[in-house]
Amino acid sequence: MTDMLHDLLDKRLIFITGKGGVGKSTATAGLGLALARKGKRVLIVETDTYSAMADLFSLTLSDSNIEKVKQFDGLEVVNLYAEDALVHAIKQFVPSDRVARSVIGNRVARVFFKAAPSVNEFSILNMVRYYLDKTRGTRPYYDHVIVDLPASGHAVTFLNVPKTLNGMVRVGRFAQICQELADQIEDTRQTAILAVCLPEEMPVNETIELSEAIEENLERKLSMIMLNMVHERPFGQTHDEVFGALRKVTPAQKPEELANAGALSRVIQGNALALDWYERDLIYIDLLGQKTASPIIEIPMFYEKEGLRVIERVADFLCGEPGGGDTELAS
Amino acid sequence: MVLAGLAACASQNGDDVSDASTTIHDPIAPLLESARLIVCCGPGGVGKTTTAAALGLRGVLMGRKVIVLTIDPAKRLANSLGLSELSNTPQQIDLRENLEQVPDSLGDGEFWAMMLDQKKTLDDLVRKYAPDPGALERAENNNIYRLLSSTLHGMQEYMALDKLHDLYTGGYFDLVVLDTPPTKNALEFLETPSRAKTFFDERIIKWFLPNRRAGFFGRVLDPGSIVLKLLGRIFGETFVTELTEFFETLEFLQQALQSRGEMIDYIMRDQQTHFFVITSADPRRMKEALFFHEKLAELGQRAEAFIINRVIPPFNPDDLQKVDADAIAGLAKNAQGLDSIDRAQFDALRKDLASTYKMLARLAVRDQDAIEDLSKKLGAGALRRVPLLGQDVHSIEQLVSLSEFLTPSKPVYA
C-alpha cells in the first residue's frame, strides 16, 4: 500500500478538487476503488449535473439515487442534485413531512431555493453528513465518503459556506449544523482535502493558489496533491547521448511532417516527445514541491484506451500492487 | 536542419516521401479576416484560452485590432501571454517588442487582452447602475455578496457580456475574441437575460421585496410572508434579512442588464459573429465538445469551426516492424560521434524506444478514431487539428507558432 492510501484509511470524509481537464474524475474513481479493495465501503458523491462516474461505470445515476458500481464490490456512486439535498434538509427542519412537502411543492419556493446563493452548498454538505452518519448495525454504513468538488476556483468558496453561514446565524439548530459542518471540514484527523493536478504550468499554478486559499480560509492544509499523468522516462539515461545525436539527424523534425515521414522518424520523434514531456514534468513537479507544503503523489501516465482500465491501474498503483500492468503489453 | 544527404538515408530507412496535399483546407482564416466577434467554447483542460489567444493573434497578424477577453477565474490568459497579471482594463501586448521578426502582414494590427476580475466587475456594475451612491457600500456589507460575488452562478457570463458590449460597441476594436468558461452552463448567456436566469427571476425578487409587490395575487396569496416566515424558522432571521438585502442589491442590476439583453442578442446573431468549439482529441473531451455543439444548435447557433487541440501525431503501431536495430544504426551513420557505439547498445535502445512508442501509438490510434467519428457527424470541413507540442505556450513567439496551425493557408512568415 502506498503511504498516500495508508494516510487516507482513517479519513472518513475526502474532498477532491482540481482544475477542469486534469483527470479529477479518474483520480477520484481510482482512489475509491483502491479503498474498496482494502475492504472499505466507499461512496463517491458527484455534485455536477453532468456525471463523469455515470460514463466511467456505465450507470444511470438519476434523481440523486445511490447506485452500486457493478464492476467492483464495495463501491457506490451518487450524483447529488442540490434540489434533492435541499428537500432532505428542509425535512430536517419542519415539524412534519406534510409541511415539508408543501414548501417543496411551492413553485416559487423551489425557484428561490434553486437560485439562492449558499443554500445549495449548505444542502449538499448537509447531505454528505447524512451519508457519513448512516449506519449498519453499530458500524458506519460507509467507511469513506469521497466528494468530487467543483473545479478548484470554486472549491474553497464551497467549503467555506458553513463557516460563513455560521458567522451570520449564531443561534438555533441551523447555526449548530453549520458549526458542525465547518468543524468537520477543518478537522484534519477525519477529513482530507485532496487536489488533483497535472505537471503542466497552468494546473500547477492553480494548485498553488488553491493551497494558499485553503490555508487562508479554512485554517487547515491541503492534505495531499495527486499529480496525475506523470510521464515516465522513455528510455534509460545510458542512451541519452546516442538518442540526442539521432534526434538531430532525424529527417522529420516537426509534428506536422510526421504523417508523411517514415517509420523511423516517427519512432524517434515519438520518443523525443515523450522525453520532452518527462523533462517538462520534472520542472513542474519541482515547482509544486517548492510552493506547497502538502505531500505530492505522482501517478504515472497510463496509456490505456478504456477509461475503466485506467481507473483500475490508478487503483493498482495506489494499492502498491503491480496488477495486470499495461493491457496490451501484458497480453 | 534537413540536409540533402539525408533524403537518401531516409529512403533507405523506409521513409516514403510523398507530397503534402496541395489544397489546404482552412475553415478559420476567412472568418478571422471578417469577423467582429468570435466566441470560443468547449471543455476545460484542452488549451482553450491559449487557443483563443492564438486566434486573436492570428487576426492581429492580418492587420486587425483585436482584443481577447477571458472570463476564466484562473489567470490563464495572463500565463499564456507571459504577463504577470491582467487587469480589468484592456492591456496592449507590443508585438514589436515581443517578436524578433515582425511579419509584414501586421500593418496596423494591435493585440490587446483583458481578463475579467469578477469581483471588481461586479463592484463596477453595482456602482454604475446603482440608484444611489451608497449602494456599493451596502452591498459590500452584505455577507452573501461578500461570499459569493466572485462565484455566483451565471454572474460571470453576465459580467462578461457587459464588458463585451462595451468593447464591441466602443468602436476601437475590429475583432473581439471571447473565451468562455469551460462549464456546462457557459452557453447560458446566449439565452439572453430576458429568458434565462432563475437567479434574476423577477418573481423571486418581487417576492422578497414586499413594497414592490403588486397585483391581485400578490395581495391575496402573499406567498412572500408565508415562505419568508418558514425560511426564517429554518435558516434564522439574520440569514433571511441578508438574503433579502442581497436580492435588493441585484434588482437594479437585473433591470440594467435586461435593457442590454436585446443589444447582446443582436450582437450574438450578427452575420459577423462566429462560434468555435475548442476541444482535445481525448474521447471524453470529444463527447463534451459534442455537447457544446448540440447546445449551440438548441440556441439557434452553429459552431463554424471545431479546433481539435493537442492531437497526438500519427504514430502507427506498424512502424515498429519496420524499425530494427539496423535501421537505427543506419541513421547513426549520419550523426556525429556515434562511430564507436556497438550493436548491443542499438539493440537495447531499440527495445526501449519500441516500448514507449507502442503506448504512444495506441493513444494516437484512439485519437484518430475519435476524430473520424466527429468528422462523420460534423463534416470534415469544419475540423481543424492542432498537433500536440512538447512544450507549453508561454511566449508570444510560441503563440505565433501555434497560430500557424490554426490558419495554415495564411502562413505568418511568407
Structure description:
The complex is a heterodimer of chains A (331) and B (414). Chain A has an eight-stranded mixed beta sheet with strand order 3-4-2-7-1-8-9-10, with helices on both faces. A two-stranded antiparallel sheet of chain A has the order 5-6. The mean pLDDT of chain A is 88. In chain A, helix 4 packs antiparallel against helix 5, helix 4 crosses helix 7 and helix 8 packs across helix 9. Helix content of chain A is 53%, strand content 14%. Chain A is of the alpha/beta class. Chain A has one domain: P-loop containing nucleotide triphosphate hydrolases (Rossmann fold, 3-Layer(aba) Sandwich). Chain B is an alpha/beta fold and 414 residues long. Helix content of chain B is 52%, strand content 11%. An eight-stranded mixed beta sheet of chain B has the order 3-4-2-5-1-6-7-8, sandwiched between helices. The longest helix of chain B has 36 residues. Chain B is elongated. Chain B starts with a helix and ends in an 8-residue tail after the last helix. The N terminus of chain B is likely disordered. At the A-B interface, helix 6, helix 8, helix 9, helix 10 and helix 11 of A face helix 1, helix 8, helix 11, helix 13 and helix 14 of B.
Short summary:
With 331 residues, chain A is α/β, with parallel strands linked by helices.
Question: What is the CA-CA span between the terminal residues of chain A?
Answer: 25 Å
Backbone shape of chain A: elongated
CATH architecture of chain A: 3-Layer(aba) Sandwich
Overall body shape of chain B:
elongated
Using a beta-carbon cutoff below 8 angstroms, give the protein chain pair with the largest interface and the number of residues from each chain: A-B, 93 and 103 residues
Poorly predicted ranges of chain B: 1-22, 192-205, 207-223
CATH architecture of the largest domain in chain B: 3-Layer(aba) Sandwich
Report Rg of chain B.
27 Å
- Classify the beta-strand content of chain B into a percent band: 5-15%
CA-based gyration radius of chain A? 23 Å
Total number of helices of chain B: 19
